[in-house]
């Protein structure tokens, strides 16, 4: 029935120009050098740049605040770090790449022999030119990440090790942006901002959220929207702890990450598994013209694991391209500015916008002529059926909407059952409403 | 378990003689020349012939009667129609085939050049020898249908065009036949009678309904049966509008069309999708020894689209051989007396009769010895199980009926779960009832 | 996720020594010569031997007792039986194999010609060296079972036929063993003991039940356990009739038979089809490291057909290796001491024990930190996830248990959804309980 199956639905066809994709990539380029972690000035600097686009509210939560089973940690900041050889040359230099320092490393200033230093060096033997990304949030430790090639080239001798970091009482910082819609029911869009110079995970997510929020701010949405720019795990736990009384307003949600690479789309379903968000995303992916796959929920990954903890069980999925952890560049220096591309970012945004479009318009209607068909001909709505023209397809879609609009089938369900893309069904519903053939079902 | 799977169940095995099929084909041959439309004397003549077999009640509904969103149209009749060339020869002649005139053409008597005439001529370039069937029920228009070969042979010049039709206030005519059964619950059998010289669609349907009604009139059915011989769309809408208060008696229904060709059986399910009629038809087709397929409901096609409109949502499916619209001869002069054949008509009737048999006997029982098995041996009901003899199969079927007769499984459900044909289960149930091992469940 | 899928879960890995399998085979060897039937001293002798291991209670139910639709039959005993040729040689001799006499043969002492004798001789032409096993419980008859080779070698002449049996008022004997657990809810383990010298069907069952009962007697079970050693059909009917008021305590049950051969495991589901016992057994078989298959319930077979009759509908399945009736040796002299092997018996016992383990520990818990994840790190429960080490797998399993412990998922459901074996999930649950992260859900 649906000739669009292998073609992208109109609303998400590529514009060709990739202007928006270019803008997203430019923003990623600007944010790339900043050293972010789960707390600290890197996060503040990042949010400050994003506020040029979106008026995020900035929240500062003090170190030591109890959030459910967790405690907001000390704030970590870093000015410089290096390892110098006996000649005084910086063989490892934080100023060249913030990946070189294990995130949350405690300060250190010490000379030591190579053997001792090596206990604190991390590399990737399988990818000898790449620098890994490592963290040590809740352990008192320090370390450097280096390419395996560099590691192997280090000569015996004394090394001067310096990490000029601070771990002090301070704050956990996150951004929140709320768009009031017609209803208090909310859509949650969540994105982690705690990774340093890593592009796909998750500067791509920040770029996408920025564009998506701008878009929704321009429409008058039916739902209210809440965008969270938070450090992973502790950030979502903190937000949930501070907003426990309001989470019941969340009707749908998505965690945004890894949306800039060229892999096929991957949707990880919510814990509920068949929530409206799950069906909406899968419908959009089916009609995206791109390759895609869906996964059942599992309780590890990014912040969906907190939103989907049993005490909340919110309908929040995670829509990615290549899933985090599944591509070799993940959490390495190879997740860089050339790994993410404008056209992939733009296509990802189009998919997210189509999902929003489905959520916004997925209403349920009742036919005002439920007994037998209405006579479409005298309303000018009847076209010959039989040719495989676009008109005939629209005609059949009209009959589907009229037949299934019994107050028990949403437009998304009608689209799925009839084998049409949501956009077609939405457009036809609009026509039928204009002819007083449908009413909204309450 | 069931050795009959690839063989027809006994009750629908071919008789060999095809006597009934021959009678059905003879009736089609008699009805073939009559010019039917959605109103007019062609319908009346057709019903008069069918009344020789079945005492249909004839209903006449006046032009202008409101029926839901529709209005009964003017009555159309036609005496003659032709196109004469400049030599006065009839190059298109309604008297040779009623397909030549677009149904519901308004009267016209005019001379015109070929160029103007061609605006009103319809042909099938892909099948140059066939004449298409066209209608213009609710548009004020006229036209002729011709073979493409004829169309291409027409020379420039003046043509004398005549359609001696009338479009006047009159009636919509339909036939209805009610057989009172033990229960007021009804089975609806509906068949459209508005097509002119087209055999599979739907003279085959009329022939089958006539035979089926005769058969049911001879048994004492459990259900009441209502047979409708109606013009398509407007006929079912009219009937539903006039009988709105009684449709809740309809427990099962079938729309009969295209039952005379040699294609595999096709069952289009009711909108409910898993109604008893759906399960009964699919069971019978599985055990028919013929090829078959089933389709999910879709809201276009024949009168099932009205019975299955959301305000009624009746359990009415459509049982065909080749589905209308799917074979090249559909709605052309090639759907003629040689396209439908006695043996196909007879097999279709057998399938319909088996469906009726299932509906009539699909009761639910309770074992009178629900705790442990009854001792079959002392009742003479126990035969050695082990050989693959017919007796062993019957023995196992007996255990199935006893085990599943708990008031929650109908005989059809037992047949399906145990992998037997309904006939076997029905026969065994009769034996068990005779031995006081079951009681009907109320 | 689960690396154990093709390997047996730890708890049912073979011990190597097969000591228990050897014990089971020794018991079978001891029981093999006894002539059992549905009543009589053979059953008593068998139970006396089994009581060396398990203190079964012995029940004696008098001939003539009404049990539902059945009546306890006369008791059958036999001392000797033979057919002598004209030279006085025993050509058929009960003392060589009790299979030679049709079970429940009435006494006879008569001379007759071969032609008459042959009416009472049974053999297997397809397996000319095997002796079939035949019964005639509820028909007044007599007969001998012989190899086809012997049958064909018999010369014309007079034969001296003797069956020194008695059919008198007496008792039906069965054994019952009850282990009181923490709950009155019961697990039923049922095994038929009515077959003479047949090893797989069902001396293997008796050997397994003996071991299983010893095992459960050593633990302090949550459930109470009831073991039945009964004659097939009439035994389960008798037990159900006498215990009708208590069967509602039965939560799970298994019929044990054919557990000593080398075929793949076969589980025949209960009539309910998706009862906890069904899911438990299938889970265990999936993780058994052995080939296996599952069958939907059908109302013939062994005593499950009585437990699953519609008036009881108990959750009782049947766990076998090669299903009775499906292997050529079934009910012949070839089902002998070499057909069943210690290693198969031991593996079958391991599977049954794992099933019991699942039932015993299949509780439902609630996370005590349902909102967001608990911080595992500060409890020492957090290990790096990423490598495919055993530790990482346990870590992920921990997250699964915490996420799904919402009072609505049993441990078995968690294991199934997460793709782990039950044992791993059980072990992790124990750890989580020790850390006060879970509570039992009531």
Please, could you describe this protein's structure?
Chain A is α/β, with parallel strands linked by helices and 442 residues long. Chain A is 30% helix and 23% strand. Chain A is built from 12 helices and 19 strands. Chain A has helices spanning 19-31, 41-50, 114-118, 148-153, 199-218, 234-242, 276-286, 304-307, 342-361, 390-404, 411-418, 422-434; strands spanning 57-62, 66-67, 70-71, 75-84, 90-93, 108-113, 121-122, 144-145, 158-168, 171-179, 186-192, 224-230, 250-256, 265-268, 292-295, 316-320, 364-367, 406-410, 438-440. Chain A has an 8-stranded mixed sheet, with helices on both faces. In chain A, strands 5-4-9-6 form a 4-stranded antiparallel sheet. In chain A, a hairpin with a 2-residue loop joins β2 (66-67) and β3. In chain A, α1 (19-31) packs across α5 (199-218), α10 crosses α12 (422-434) and α11 packs across α12 (422-434). The interface between A and B is medium-sized, with 22 and 25 residues.
Low-confidence spans of chain A: 1-6
Helix content of chain A: 25-40%
Oligomer: homotrimer
Distance between the termini of chain A: 30 Å
What is the molecular shape of chain A? elongated
Q: Main β-sheet of chain A: number of strands, strand sense, barrel status?
A: 8 strands, mixed
Radius of gyration of chain A: 25 Å
């Amino acid at each position: 029935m649906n000739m669009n199956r292998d073609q992208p639905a109109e609303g998400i066809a590529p514009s060709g120009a990739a202007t928006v994709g270019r803008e997203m990539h430019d923003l990623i380029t600007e944010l790339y050098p900043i050293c972010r972690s789960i707390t600290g000035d890197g996060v503040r600097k990042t949010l400050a740049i994003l506020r040029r686009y979106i008026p995020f509210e900035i929240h500062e939560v003090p170190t030591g605040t109890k959030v459910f089973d967790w405690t907001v940690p000390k704030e970590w900041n870093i000015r410089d770090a290096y390892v110098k050889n006996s000649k005084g040359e910086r063989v490892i230099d934080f100023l060249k790449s913030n990946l070189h320092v294990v995130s949350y490393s405690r300060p250190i200033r010490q000379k030591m022999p190579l053997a001792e230093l090596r206990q604190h060096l991390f590399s990737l033997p399988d990818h000898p030119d790449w620098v890994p990304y490592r963290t040590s949030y809740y352990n008192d430790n320090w370390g450097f990440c280096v390419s395996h090639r560099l590691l192997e080239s280090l000569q015996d001798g004394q090394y001067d090790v310096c990490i000029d970091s601070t771990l002090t009482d301070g704050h956990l910082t996150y951004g929140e942006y709320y768009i009031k819609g017609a209803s208090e029911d909310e859509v949650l869009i969540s994105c982690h901002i705690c990774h340093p110079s890593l592009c796909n995970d998750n500067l791509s997510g920040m770029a996408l959220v920025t564009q998506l929020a701008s878009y929704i701010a321009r429409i008058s949405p039916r739902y209210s929207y809440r965008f969270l720019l938070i450090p992973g795990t502790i950030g979502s736990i903190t937000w949930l702890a501070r907003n426990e009384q309001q989470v019941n307003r969340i009707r749908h949600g998505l965690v945004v990450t890894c949306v800039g690479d060229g892999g096929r789309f991957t949707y990880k379903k919510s814990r509920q598994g068949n929530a409206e968000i799950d069906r909406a995303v899968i419908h959009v992916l089916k009609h995206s013209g791109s390759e895609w796959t869906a996964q059942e929920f599992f309780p590890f990954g990014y912040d969906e694991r907190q939103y989907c903890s049993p005490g909340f069980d919110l309908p929040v999925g995670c829509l990615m391209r290549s899933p985090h952890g599944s591509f070799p560049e993940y959490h390495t220096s190879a997740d860089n500015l050339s790994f993410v591309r404008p056209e992939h970012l733009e296509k990802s945004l189009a998919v997210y916008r189509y999902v929003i479009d489905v959520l916004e318009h997925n209403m349920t209607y009742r036919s005002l002529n439920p007994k037998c068909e209405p006579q479409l001909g005298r309303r000018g709505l009847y076209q010959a059926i039989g040719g495989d023209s676009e008109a005939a397809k629209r005609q059949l879609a009209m009959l589907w909407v009229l037949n299934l609009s019994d107050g028990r089938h949403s437009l998304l369900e009608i689209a799925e059952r009839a084998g049409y893309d949501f956009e077609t069904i939405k457009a036809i519903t609009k026509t039928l409403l204009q002819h007083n053939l449908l009413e909204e079902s309450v």
